[in-house]
Write a structure and sequence with these properties.
Layout lengths: L1 H21 L3 E3 L9 E6 L5 H14 L4 E6 L4 H13 L4 E4 L7 H10 L4 E4 L5 H5 L4 E5 L2 H18 L10 E8 L5 H16 L3 E9 L4 H15 L5 E4 L2 H13 L11 E2 L5 H8 L6 E3 L2 H16 L17 E3 L3 E3 L4 H7 L2
Parallel strand pairs: 2-3, 2-4, 4-5, 5-6, 6-12, 7-8, 7-9, 9-10
Antiparallel strand pairs: 1-3, 11-13
Helix pairs in contact: 2-11, 3-4, 6-7, 8-9
The chain binds beta-D-galactopyranose (GAL) and calcium ion.
GO molecular function, one term: metal ion binding
Pfam family, one: Peripla_BP_4
Subunit structure: The ABC transporter complex is composed of one ATP-binding protein (MglA), two transmembrane proteins (MglC) and a solute-binding protein (MglB).
Length: about 350
């Protein structure tokens, strides 16, 4: 049953992507009623595994409450800027923006200010100064460093529990790291804090490779292909800033004879998307960190809807704002022991 559901979801995503290829990037969500406010939403690119779940949560939350104008910014900030202009001209009552370039917040804020519109950024955190520069702006996301710390704990615990993973017996972890988009607060913090946390637990490390796979599965696989060709079994751990790249690593490892005849390589990711949970169940990934797509999508919609209706952003919600005007949804470290928590969050 689960397999069938997963297949259906995959098929829907393929069909959606195919449909997007033929139409202009902007397409109003179905079922928009005259009585509900228009909300303009951008996703930095639809072709991002994790963001497709955030998008789904926004759409679910907005059903019958808002007319969502959803845009695929196709990983192009200029495209996104035009989409924002277009949505303003269509009379949206608020904006929910997943930036392409985290540094582009000021230009979006200027557009919103010019039209006297509230704007909720999500997933790519703008600088604190940008958030502070306009009263009617907020952020929904996470505390990025938390995911690195939790991933580091998983690496350290699993390493200590499996002495044979130290293939060259030098007591250090020879690791390779697949980094997300450079300059992205999540990528920078995960890269820094995962290693800090491993060291804090008393384990020495040696970095064999660190490169960006841009959150992308195919790029992750290509990098690991090259690294295996260069270092082979000198690599003792593969750390990925997200699950899509970790999944790329797993498929590279499989193609290189790992996970059979006693050949093994530990891999960790972040997000806890369903495909990664399957790999953890199968013993091909050690763990991941739940990046709660459902609650981040829901919080984004809740805030954008409230401000579109002229209400306080938090009215009637369970969220709280920190001193940067951010809602921060907690991460959860995920291994085989607590997979159910992650499964629930991606239902
Ligand atoms: C991160 C997530 C990545 C990617 C990125 C896009 O939070 O872990 O998989 O989706 O956001 O900004
Ligand atoms: Ca070693």
């Amino acid at each position: 049953m689960k397999k069938i559901l997963a297949l259906l979801l995959a098929l829907t995503m393929v069909l959606t992507l195919a449909a997007c290829g033929q139409k202009p990037a902007e397409a109003p969500a179905a079922g928009g009623d005259a009585g509900v406010p228009k909300i303009g939403v951008t996703i930095y690119k639809f072709d991002d595994n994790f963001m497709s779940f955030v998008r789904r949560a926004i759409e679910t939350g907005g059903k019958d409450k808002a007319e969502l104008i959803l845009n695929d910014s196709q990983n192009n900030q200029a495209t996104q800027n035009e989409q924002v202009d277009m949505m303003i001209s269509k009379g949206v009552k608020s904006l929910a923006i997943n930036l392409v370039d985290p540094q582009a917040a000021p230009s979006i804020i200027e557009k919103a200010r010019g039209a006297n519109l509230p704007v909720v950024f999500f997933n790519k955190e703008p600088d604190a100064a940008a958030l502070a520069s306009y009263d009617h702006t907020w952020y929904v996301g996470t505390t990025s460093s938390e995911s690195g710390v939790m991933q580091g704990k998983i690496v350290a615990d699993s390493w200590k529990a499996n002495p044979d993973w130290d293939k060259n017996g030098d007591g250090k972890i020879q690791y390779v790291l697949l980094k997300g988009e450079p300059g992205h607060p999540d990528a920078e913090a995960r890269t820094k804090y995962v290693i800090e946390e491993i060291k804090k637990s008393g384990i020495e490390v040696e970095e064999l490779e660190l490169q960006t796979g841009m959150w992308d599965s195919v790029k992750g696989k290509e990098l690991v292909d090259a690294w295996l060709a260069k270092h082979g079994d000198k690599i003792e751990y593969i750390i990925a800033n997200n699950d899509a790249m970790a999944l790329g690593a797993v498929s590279s490892l499989k193609a290189n004879g790992y996970f059979e005849n006693g050949k093994f390589m530990p891999v960790v990711g972040v997000d806890a998307i369903p495909d990664a949970l399957e790999q953890i169940k199968g013993g091909l990934m050690v763990g991941t960190v739940l990046n709660d797509a459902k609650n981040q999508g829901q919080a984004t919609l809740d805030l954008a809807l409230n401000v579109a209706n002229g209400k306080d952003p938090l009215e009637g919600t369970k969220w709280t704002l920190d001193d940067k005007k951010a809602v921060r949804v907690p991460y959860v470290g995920i291994t085989l022991d607590n997979l159910a928590i992650a499964e629930e969050a991606y239902k």
